[in-house]
Write a structure and sequence with these properties.
7-stranded antiparallel sheet, 9 strands
Amino acid sequence: MGHDAAPDAGMGGLGFSVRPRLGPYFAIDFGIDFLRGQDFNAEDRSETAFFINPMFFVNPKNRAQVYLFGGLGFAGADVTHVDRTHSRYDYVGLDAGVGLELRFGRHVAFDGDMLAFVRRRTDDAAALDPEFVDPRTGRSTNTSNGALFRVGMTYYW
C-alpha cells in the first residue's frame, strides 16, 4: 500500500471472469473484482473494478503456461472517511501483468497473476475535490496506481 500508508492499510476481495481462448496463444479476459478493506489513509473503502485484458500465452503447449496481459479497466469506489462523511469515486485506467496457468486436463486450470494499474478519477467532483492531497506541500492529484495479486481457477468449455 506504499511507504507512507497507514499501518493497517490493506484490501482483499473476490473476482470473477470469463476468458474466451481465441487460439493457442491468445485469449481475452473479461473480469470483475469486488474489493474491501482499509485504504492508504486507513479509511473504509469498497471497490468494484471491471477489466478487459487481451492475453498472450508464451508457451501454450505446456502444462505450466506463462501469460502476459494488458488492457483497460473501469472502477468505482465508496469511501467512508475518518470524519464519517462518504465519497464516491469513478476511475478509468490501464493495466498490465504477468501470470502462470497450471493446466489440469483439457478444461480446468489454476492460475495466479500480478496486475499493475494506473488510473485517473473521472467523476464530476474530481476537478474540485482531489482524492489525494499532501498535507506538507499542498500538492494534489487524482491519479493513482497499485497492484493486485490474484489466484483463481479457470474452466474452459
